[in-house]
């Protein structure tokens, strides 16, 4: 697969297929058509030729405009099938067809019949000429100025639409929650934005961390040749693309060739990014401009998302480690907190909660027993049953956990605090520490209460052997409506196969 081709020598450069400007002549006199075409036939405006479209009545004229929305200039006769046929046609072009781009020159055979000023004021026309005026030079001058205005208006329109697309695309991109979603959103939009077929696109970022380690991160990739592994990895980059990107990072400069666009962006002192795009077809400078603008926006958003994800990953890892640490201090080694996290997430989704709620619950649930940090080990590690005083001490872990987390404004910690406080409440009001009942217990507390029991019963603990599945099911059925929310129990029973799978994937390590 070839990428950066050397520029071909001038002699073999293929001539671009130049689209001619469309000029419409709408007039009921055959001769007017003939003369106009004769005068203009070899005229080139910006090196582009003119092609003529002919209509002999206002009705035919309207059809012309319906078939050709890209007419650059139209000469329209005032009087055709009726005295104001031309004016009505202009009205339809501008108001019904919503065409405000085409330049319109109104022509009249009888000067003085339609008062010039009122017509120009009332109708959106660009010039008003009597047919006798349209001599050779005047006609050409009129054509040049009209077509050039059309060209400029078109450029402004296209840029405006391009900008609107950039804004719309950036907006939907900002809504994506993860880098992966984001990468896909971008590339879909870029292709739409430019209205151009891209063969491949890669967005690569290089970040240098505090310790001076430079890491190349593949942020997005799409296209014919792209085979993404499970992991986003710069290994999917073809060798020549990778070296072009590394080269760009070294020289810190964007470059555009016939079929490749490489944008370089230096967004902060530690991060630089490269957007590599290979095109299937020729691209023009306007598309390059839009691409530059879009890519600059995108890389910025990308970096923010990337650092946000990085921070989130770190937090989530630390919470799991903390959860594990609490378990180990309670001598409940194993994967209990990790299983509970996944089971809670499934449960929340099963109960119709949003994926955001389910995800936060997954991250917050490892904190449910954080209050046990304050419980003496003599109680935590006691092999037999606790006496009344020890049990009272043990019960304080719910309030202690809440007190540790309650001042945080972070969503995960807020949910963690609510779970710590409420995961020992009972549906019938006989739990602790606040004897809450029914719906007064926060949803996340009710979910963790049940999942914690299901997983704990299935695990080996210092004071018991693991229970059989059927016994666990029977136990939670019996406690439905007493200890547990009946709706939770029903949901858990339906998810039991999934719970079994989670246990198989995350078994407890046997400890000696």
Briefly say what this structure is.
Helices cover 50% and strands 13% of the residues. It has 512 residues and is α/β, with parallel strands linked by helices.
Q: Would you kindly provide a written description of the structure presented here, covering whatever features stand out?
A:
Helix 2 (58-67) runs parallel beside helix 3 (85-96) and helix 6 packs antiparallel against helix 8. A five-stranded parallel sheet has the order 2-1-3-4-5, sandwiched between helices. Strands 7-6-10-9-8 form a five-stranded antiparallel sheet, with helices on both faces. The chain has 512 residues and is of the alpha/beta class. Mean pLDDT is 82; it is low at 1-16. Helix 3 (85-96) links the parallel strand 3 (73-77) and strand 4. It folds into three domains: 15-158, Rossmann fold (3-Layer(aba) Sandwich); 176-306, Beta-Lactamase (2-Layer Sandwich); 330-505, Hypothetical protein af1432, CATH 1.10.3210.10. It is 50% helix and 13% strand.
